[in-house]
Amino acid sequence: MADITVTNIRPDRAAVASQWQLIWWAFKRHKLAMAALVVTVAMYIVALFPGFFAINDPVAQNARATFHPPQQVHFFDTSDGFDFWPHYYPLKLSRDPQTLAAIFTEDKTKKIPITFFGRGYTYSVLGLFETDIHLIATTNKAQPLFLFGADRLGRDVYSRTVQGAQVSLSIGLVGVAVSLLLGIILGGISGYYGGRLDFFMQRVIDFVLSLPTIPIWLALAAALPQGWPATLQYMMITIILSFTGWAQLARVVRGRFLSLRTEEFVAAARLDGVSETRIIFRHMLPSFSSHIIASVTLAVPAMILAETSLSFLGLGLQPPTVSWGVLLREAQNIRSIATAPWLFLPGIAVVVAVMALNLLGDGLRDAADPYNK
After folding, report:
1. Is 367 exposed, middle or buried (0-12, 13-18, 19+ CB in 10 A)?
2. End-to-end alpha carbon distance in the chain
3. How far is CA 169 from CA 12, 153, 271, 303, in A?
4. Confidence of residue 50 (pLDDT cuts 50, 70, 90)
């Protein structure tokens, strides 16, 4: 792991710096974690405004573009003088006379320029207003650009991957938020009060941790009615993923509460007549909030992988909902693997997201470690 010490900070600044400033200074020295932070922020910006970053309507079908391969973007054109501007050429479909396999070749006679901040299909921004401005747009609507190719129904895989980021990335945050709430409340009560309540809570946590995660997820997801609307499916899958995610965090919180409840600042707060609720939320939780943040960051990729796995197996989110797991279901059969390998491209988005969040969590955990300064 990279050296993240803060020895280069002036002593006068370090003496008056808050805990969060020290953590930020240590985190900035972790170059790999900083790069992961940039990637993570970029992904969540895309997930927040997927319509702006998409090129084509992610649900629009095009019978003429079935299994359309990815198209190359060109920047230089010397056919008629020198021209520097991003453009692409439409693909012409032909058949191999012996195998009848589809062969796509670029039609160099038709150059279609790519525009930035152009107009395309209409989409809603956070449910507040509608617009048709896109980061990347084309001037020829009859021959659209397929950066990641098209699926069996002629839908743009790139636009669907961008749209799927909204569901897959947000379900990780929502699931971790529910797990965090349960873990802090139940683990805090167990560690703060102790006694028989602590014994009972720990047996419940032991039971939850002993459950085989994947079979439990599959059983609960299979019990969901198939006719539920997408919003209700999203909520229930989030609850399912949170069902087993809170126990580990609750045990960590309980251990920290056991060690903090005998500290002098907690005893002083009790003698001062401070309520137990204020002692817990004002004095004890902030003392290890940095560790909670690091744990949460490391838990988000696990939630994303869980949703992707359930949706890939057909037991999670269902079409027409678009998520990375739903998109990867298109690549389950041999025909898709043989004729359209680009259907695996949403899996690259999963890999990048999980790696970025894991590296970010590692950097936060090391920066928050008081013995690593």
Report:
1. buried
2. 13
3. 41, 25, 45, 9
4. very high
What would you measure as the largest C-alpha separation in the chain, in angstroms?
A: 90
Distance, in Å, from the CA atom of 13 to the CA atom of 25, rounded to the nearest integer, reads 11
Among 140-144, 163-167, 297-301, the range of highest mean pLDDT: 163-167
Domains plus CATH for the chain? 11-48+162-372 (1.10.3720.10), 66-155 (no CATH)
CA dihedral 141, 102, 70, 306 (to 10 degrees): 110
For the chain, how many helices (H) and strands (E)? 15, 6
Q: For 334-345, write each residue's pLDDT tens digit.
A: 777 777 889 989
- The dihedral built from the CA positions of residue 346, 166, 219 and 211, taken in this order, carries a sign that is positive
Structure tokens at 150: 């098209």
Distance, in Å, from the CA atom of 236 to the CA atom of 89, rounded to the nearest integer, reads 44
pLDDT tens for 119-138 read: 989 999 988 889 999 999 98
Neighbours of 69 (CB within 10 A): 17
